[in-house]
Amino acid sequence: MNGPLAASAIASAWPGLFALFGLVFAWAWSIEKKRHYLLLLSACLFFATAAFMQIMLLPLDIGANTISTGLLYTLAVLAAAEAILRRSGSGMGWKLALAVIVVMTMLLGYFYYVHPNLLVRIYLQAFGYGLILAATAWRLRSSSGLWLSLRSTSSRAPG
Questions:
Q1: 138 vs 22: CA distance, rounded Å
Q2: Cα(116)–Cα(113) distance, rounded to whole angstroms?
């Protein structure tokens, strides 16, 4: 099995795995509906859809592909961050999430259509998503349970 079809089939395995995770989280939420963060974690499906669209080049127009997959990736990262925060009893809020979605999508569009620069788009997404997750971790720092458990575990480490 050689050629571009085989390469696409192999590359589609990762989106398939994320789709499986998304479906499992959705199934877990259907059993335990009071745990709303499980439904947010099923946003792995957004990530899987974006990855599949990028691999298969759907839509065929590169600009539309860039904007639509960037939007889905951003939604997936924001949903994961919100799920983590809700699990700890806080949240990001829809206004901040909407602002991040609008800014990221506009910047991706600007660096594709107005001032084309692939490297900037890559850095924008990598550092933007890293910043979202770092901000999530920063908000969790007041959740003493996580840090106390990590601290007590590390103090008992052999050494």
A1: 26
A2: 6
> What torsion, rounded to 10 degrees, do the Cα atoms 13, 15, 19, 20 define?
30
Res 11: pLDDT: 76
Of 64, 133, 135, 72, which Cα lies nearest the Cα of 101? Answer: 72
Asked if omega into 59 is within 30° of 0 (cis), the reply is: yes
- pLDDT value of position 147: 53
The residue ranges of the chain whose pLDDT is under 70 are 1-2, 5, 8, 143-159
Q: What is the DSSP string of 45-75?
A: HHHHHHHHHHHHTSSSSHHHHHHHHHHHHHH
Of all helices (H) and strands (E), which one includes residue 105? Answer: helix 94-109
**Residue 92 identity:** M
- Global pTM reads 0.83
